[in-house]
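Subject: sequence -> structure tokens, single chain

Hey, anyone have a minute? Need the predicted structure for the following. Not urgent.
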Amino acid sequence: MPSFTIIAVLLFSLFCQPVWAFDNAEPLPPDQVFQVSAQALNTQEIELSFSILDGYYLYRDKIKAETKTAQIQLETPSFPEGETRHDSNFGDVIVFRHDLKVPVRVNAPAGTTALQLTVKYQGCADKGLCYPPMSKTFDLSLPAAEPAAKADPLAQLVKNAASVKLNLFEDELLPPDKAYQFFATVKDANTLHVNWEIAPGYYLYKEKVQLELIKESGVTLGTYTIPAGTPKEDEAFGKVEVFHDELRFDIPLNRTSAQAETIKLKAKFQGCADRGVCYPPMSKEISLNLPATTTVAQPQPATSAPLSEQDQIVKSLKQDSLAMTLLTFFGFGLLLSLTPCVFPMVPILSGIIIGHGKNTSVLHGFLLSLSYVTASAITYTIFGVLAAVFGSNLQVLFQQPWIIALFSTIFVLLALSMFGFYHLDLPDAIRAKLHNSSEKHRNGSFWGAAIMGALSSLIVGPCVAAPLAGALIYIGQTGNALLGGSALFVMGIGMGVPLLMLGASAGKLLPQKGDWLNSVNAVFGVIMLAVAVWMLSRILPAEITMLLWSLLLIVPAIYLNALDSLPEHSTGWRKLWKGLGVIMLSYGLILLVGFGLGNSNPLKPLQGLGITSAAAAPQAQHFEKVSSVAELEAKLQQAKTNHQLVMLDFYADWCISCKEMEAYTFTDATVKQHLSGFMLLQADVTDNTEADKALLAKFKLIGPPGVIFYDKNQQELPALRVIGYQDAAAFAKTLQRVKS
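Reply:
Had a minute. Here:
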């Protein structure tokens, strides 16, 4: 602090006879205590902004605005209501704290474009120190006034559309450091104060605000809370909170040394203009001088906070080499290839290969599967990166009922063609072009496989697993879409390894000619119908789905001669097919009986007939439904009053892993025992409504499945989140950790 400023402060303090109560700490510079700015709102009004540090105040009657520009007059400022305070020097006065905005009317001749403004002000600290009168001068540019014109609705519509979409009538965007002015000050020896001054017409994202100390071993940032922002449905990031005008809050410090020292604070943030143009992520570093302190944190043993599985993956992405990262995600893909989200792709690819059985060889089958897997991995990568950038699982968009019905219809048509009802082929003109392009791509087989692979990754398996969530969190935090996208692509290839093996083996396992080929086509036609029924189960009532499964078993069983007697000298293969037909017919009839009884679970069609005792039949957990953030908060408050642990399950009808958790994990006896005493909540996000998106955004989830836990004080336990499927044994261990 300059010596002349200190002398002026001391002289003024002696003159006003304040109470000195700063514990011998050096007074803060006035520019840190009172931050002043001014801006022209239009040709007739300017606005003065004051950002006042906590523990300080400004006198209302000491705030004045004067113009230094000839022919411009300022009217008396319009002050908001202030706080009445009895001052030992000035008696009863009105003072302002924290943030203050003062509009001032301007009388300026037409065509005036500039204004030189001087703002005078004076303030004190609650502890008694008063500052001398201060002033700042600003050079403001006045916006040009628009000429008056006769109201024309059509012209106004065009103008509004242009200003919103094309920005033809907008001024140029402000530079980032003008649109978002970041300040940081030392509030006391153990507290920092940060604030952003945001220009009118611009806003700042709450989720993009990050603070850190650069290379400080003896000082760390404590836990701080960013104030709530204004909810906004953002085109880029979905459901977010934003700040207009300003953002300010305190940050506690943890210090291990009592000595005065200098620290460097780094702030990262991002915002957009209301007109729809967004700035890239920004950062600013500020050096701050910390005074000596009497509060020193006691050294703690070096421990690492537990991380959830997806957070561990994020950490490894930041630290591991590129080769190790890609190898790790390839391993994740191999593991995910064993999950139900990938199983439906097996009959789809098999049907594609069988459909070209006359040309099938080891090489041809492998290339078909490679086209399918590569397109699936590329689509998986693109939509994963978009989900990380926009904060929403775009695969959910493909779970609309009409899309599911359309895709199911495609499988039915493919199945009927395999039964020999008709032959699917491309028009001659298109087939000729593909033939001229490459002999290998004749009939569009490779392109067809690629298209089916892309659609399968979007529609068949949209469930979220921990590796996917980790990669998306990493992209969202760092903006490194290249590394995150590469990891997702390699994981997609790993998930497709079984499919590549299937394609490579097709030339050896599949018959090349004869009646066998027709039989194999028929078998895979039935499998295609099964995939169609499985997809329709997401949008049809469970009872109707059970009826479809029954028909799918009974009708093919008849074609397998389940009702016909075997000839005297039947081959072993024919006996095998008849045996399979009898099994399919029997279970299909059981499903039909279960449908008549009103049951809906194909795995328990006769439930309720007394065949399985109630005690032996596993029952699903009872969940209380929550459909909005407000309902969730109310339930959490209720659980806090009852001193209960809380488990929140995110579920969707189109999520395979969700149904797997519901059928096998939540019905396990050990799991049910651990869950006794929990408040069990479930958010069904099947319809992907705005309320569903808000719930997912609250926990930064891309989609289901996901299980969130709260302790008895209703503090979330982020390290124990379960993303993706977890079997009963692993889930029971997770519950033990929650309860401990």
